[in-house]
Amino acid sequence: MKFLIVFVALFAVALAAPTGEVTILRSESDVGPENFSYAFETSDGTAAQESGVLKNAGSEQEAIAVQGSYKFIGDDGVTYEVTYIADENGFQPSGAHLPVAPEA
């Protein structure tokens, strides 16, 4: 499960990368039996970091709680950054460029 999350995140960043030579400036990861973390930064301004922990291990309510962020430079030259939490309440992103739902 943890490997899948990391792979999907890296795959999404790779698809969003512009064509041309991009080098990895920093790449770190630490994967344990009940937690993980990773971070990377590339020469085109893309960066991401994420950490997660297994909650309620061994129970029927076992789940992974993740928090992280990613940023990239858009085609318009603006740096976009998203921070997020993903847990039993779903994926909860936030960023200055993302719309916010009205209060109910």
From TrEMBL:
GO terms for molecular function: structural constituent of chitin-based larval cuticle. Keywords: Cuticle. GO terms for cellular component: chitin-based extracellular matrix. InterPro entries: CHIT_BIND_RR_consensus, Cuticle_Struct_Prot, Insect_cuticle. PANTHER family: ADULT CUTICLE PROTEIN 65AA-RELATED, CUTICLE PROTEIN. This is Larval cuticle protein 65Ag1-like. It comes from Drosophila pseudoobscura pseudoobscura (Fruit fly).
